[in-house]
Amino acid sequence: MMDDGSAAALGVLGAQAGADVAVLWKQGGATTEGLVLSAWPAGVAPQGSLWPPVLAPPDPVVAREPARLGALLPTALRLSLPGPARAAMVVDLEDGQFALLLVWCAVEPDRPAEQLLSAQDRSGLGALARRQEHRLRVETQALQLEAAVDILEQGLVVVDDLRMVGYTNGAAARLLGLAAGEVPAAVLADAMQALQNRALNREVLLAAAARLIANPRAVLTDLLWTFAEAPTHLRVNTAPFRGAALSGRAWIFDDVSSLMAALEAENQAQARLRLQHAEVEALNRSLHARVQEGVDALRQKDRMLITQGRQAAMGEMIGNIAHQWRQPLNALGMVLANVRDAQRFGEFEGEPVADLLAKGNRLIQSMSTTISDFQNFFSPDKARVGFSLREQVQKAVALVAASCAAGGVTLRIEGEHDCRLVGFPNEYAQVLVNLLHNARQAIHASGTTPGLVTLRVGETEDWGCLSVRDNGTGIPAEVLDRIFDPYFTTREQGTGLGLHMCRQIIEANMGGRILVENVDGGAEFRVLVPLQRP
Question: CA 395 to CA 320: how far, in whole Å?
């Protein structure tokens, strides 16, 4: 913007010196461009334009030669002069911060250079240069600020109560349907009222307006105006301002439609996620319940299988008891016959009768011991304990020895080594009895004579090992992987529970392993149970 006051002052000084042109500028440097502060007459050097470096002599000298004039006059200035330059002079001001250029076109100056400008003139020109520099700086900053505000995405509305005018930047102008820049305050108020009338939450806006009426100095932040059409959401902030020459209120309108849409989408996604999470939790609970039901059913089935296995084993044991009792019962019958004969022949007195009674008592005690052994065999263990492997092997052999001998099968224990296992000793003995019965039946089915079952006691790494080998014909290869399945059997009268129960006891209850393979001349089962550690 031109400063008519400064140009007029330059014109007075130029006329006093008889010059045709006067230019006041801020010095740059030897290589730095200067800044034109004012010029007379108007148009010879635009205010605010850049001025090429001009080196002024230390003392004012009027230059009249063309070479000197060319060094002092910028090309743009020479083109705008009212005529050919005949003389020129550059004067430093304010210790070289500013400079004044005088140019004569019509006539040459008639006085020496030091007489053209007085010290008072130079002081006044220095003060004028400082004011013009400050004015240009303020105007430049204002223009830069206006340009920055105008490109803001947020809408800015400033209402000047003193001048009754308003200002809108580009975003606010598009929002309100106005032209950017200054508008009358009344027009701006009508546009803002029309915008509020479109809002869906007018009650909130009316309450905010009532607060401003009650307290004109109030600051309102984060007011949300919602609309049916774009922009659907505006975040509004307003605050008053007051200065010496400016007083009013500023409004900032921030279009947060995209942000609110994103938040709504996120809320919907979160709601869907919560719903899916609830569905997954319900499904997990249902699956957990179904799995628990399945586990309970399997446990019940296992208990039934073990019960059925025990019942089948009990049947086997009754047969063993019968074999164990057959010989003592026969002997007891002979004792009773001898007692009857003694009665018939009157021989109740003396040692013969006493011997018969003692022998009868021994037979009865032996039969009682047999019952106790089988009773202990079927008593379930309540806790894991350490036990002797060889002792349980001998116990199992004693229970089935009679039935095996009756079937022509010999039981042989190999290995002098003993070790202690940890688990349930009675259940372990049940497994051994079951394996011995299976071996006896396999030998009987194969027709092998004489039958032989070898039990080998040993230890390997962390396991106590027992192998049970028979000399039957072995297990058919096609069913070898299925013999531990429940209800699977190769015998017509078999239940298919014995070996399954053996695996459950050894692997599930005692943490061991039970393996089977065909060997030369029969089958071999290996039972591995963890060793008891000190």
Answer: 13
**In the Cβ-directed half-sphere of 492, how many Cα atoms lie within 13 Å?**
1
Which residues lie across from 454 on neighbouring strands? 412, 469
Residue 184 sits at the vertex; the CA angle it makes with 218 and 245, to the nearest 5 degrees, is 60
Instruction: Find the helix or strand (DSSP H, E) in which 351 lies.
Output: helix 351-377
**Half-sphere exposure in the Cβ direction for 295 (13 Å, CA):** 6
Rounded CA-CA distance 7/256 in Å is 50
Distance CA 222, CA 57 (A): 63
**Against a cut of 0.85, is the pTM above it?**
no
Tokens coding 48: 């605010």
Q: What share of the chain is helix, strand, coil (3-state, %, to 5)?
A: 50, 20, 30
pLDDT confidence of residue 313: 59
> Comparing 203-217, 357-371, 436-450, which segment has the lowest mean pLDDT?
357-371
CA gap 453, 368 in Å, rounded = 28
**CA–CA gap between residue 305 and residue 41 (Å, rounded):** 120
Q: At what angle do helices 351-377 and 257-344 cross, to 10 degrees?
A: 170
- Cα torsion 267, 273, 278, 279 to 10°: value is 130
- Give the H or E element holding residue 469: strand 463-470
Structure tokens belonging to residue 11? 């014109």
**How many C-beta neighbours within 10 Å does residue 118 have?**
12
Amino acid at 358: A
CB distance 10 to 21 below 8 Å: no
Residue 165: CB partners within 8 Å, gap ≥ 6? 159, 182, 183, 184, 185
Q: How far is CA 231 from CA 174, 178, 192, 237, 254, in A?
A: 11, 16, 15, 16, 10
Measured CA to CA, the distance from residue 184 to residue 160 in angstroms comes to: 10
**Would you place residue 124 in the very low, low, confident or very high pLDDT band (cuts 50, 70, 90)?**
confident
Q: Which tokens is 347 given?
A: 């021989």
**413: its two tokens:** 């224990």
Contact 158, 238 (CB under 8 A): no
Domain 380-530: CATH superfamily is Histidine kinase-like ATPase, C-terminal domain (3.30.565.10)
Instruction: Look up residue 44 and give its DSSP letter.
Output: S
Q: List, for residues 56-76, the tens digit of each pLDDT value.
A: 555 667 778 877 787 778 888
pLDDT for the residue numbered 85? 87
Residue 103 contacts residue 73 (beta carbons within 8 Å):
yes
Q: Which two tokens stand for residue 1?
A: 């913007």
Q: Is the dihedral of CA 258, 262, 267, 272 positive or negative?
A: positive
Measured from the Cβ of residue 427, the count of other Cβ atoms closer than 10 Å reads 20
Q: Which two tokens mark 467?
A: 């192998």
pLDDT tens per residue across span 462-512? 899 999 999 988 888 888 888 888 777 777 666 667 788 888 889 988 899
Q: Write out the CATH class of domain 4-147.
A: alpha beta
Cα(322)–Cα(27) distance, rounded to whole angstroms?
A: 133
State residue 154's pLDDT score. 87
CATH architecture of 151-255: 2-Layer Sandwich (3.30)
